[in-house]
Amino acid sequence: MLIFDPLQLAALAAVHRRGSFDLAAADLGVTQSAVSQRLRGLEDRAGALLIRRGSPSVATDAGLRLIRHFDDIVLLEQQVAVDLPGVQAGKVALRIAVNADSLATWVMPALAQVPGVLFDLVIDDQDFSQDWLRRGEVVAAVTAHAGPLQGCDTLPLGALRYIATASPGYMDRCFPAGVTAEALAHAPALTFSDKDRLQAQWVAARRLGLRAGFPSHRIASTHGFVDACLLGLGWGLNPEPLVAAHLAAGRLVEMVPDSAYDVALHWQFARLTAGAIRPLTQAMRTAAGQMLRIQ
Hints:
By secondary structure, this protein is of the alpha/beta class. It contains 12 helices and 11 strands.
């Protein structure tokens, strides 16, 4: 029977997630030499290279498979501790992938409803967060993809509504004749990152006839988007919960009336550990139900 040493598996996961042996050692409370010895022992046991040493150090495909195995073990043992009160278990760390806008609007209240858990959040665009789950690097993800994904279950959460917003002064300066293709081609927008397609998708949905791209600031911050719009730096799609008060007060305006853009979100998680993360799943669904729009 092939049985892996949990201390060696923990070393592997720590090196991959922290990106270096010294940071992994600090997390585990051991020496860097001990981490190296544990990893070498695990690689000998597995008969494969598990970590590509570098800056950062990252797991190979074989290493990612063992990290997923380790995460499953930890979560299943935690479930045993819940079912058998006499069994003692330490705090479990749940690694989940979530988009920045969800984190800034409805996810944080959900996490606060799950005591006794440490969270390791991976922030990525909702169109790419599923990739982390597919690779086995997280146990669950908030994603725009409904699935299916092998070995995983998917639950619909609702839609996060976005409003294309700008300051009144910006609209007067950049869109004096309204939002046209010509004006969009010159008016600076806001983009979270190269993965962010929301602004482009909104423009396409409006069928404004813009044939090329548009200039854009890159600001990797949900609240930074709102501030940039308030200051007249550019226009962008902002989550409705974050700009509703600004719209009501006239500090921001909707660029095109009644042009909200809804992004459907889903909670996707590994089927094997569904029972172990059930409290988190329930909290996520409750929080989403209070903030997101039912589709």
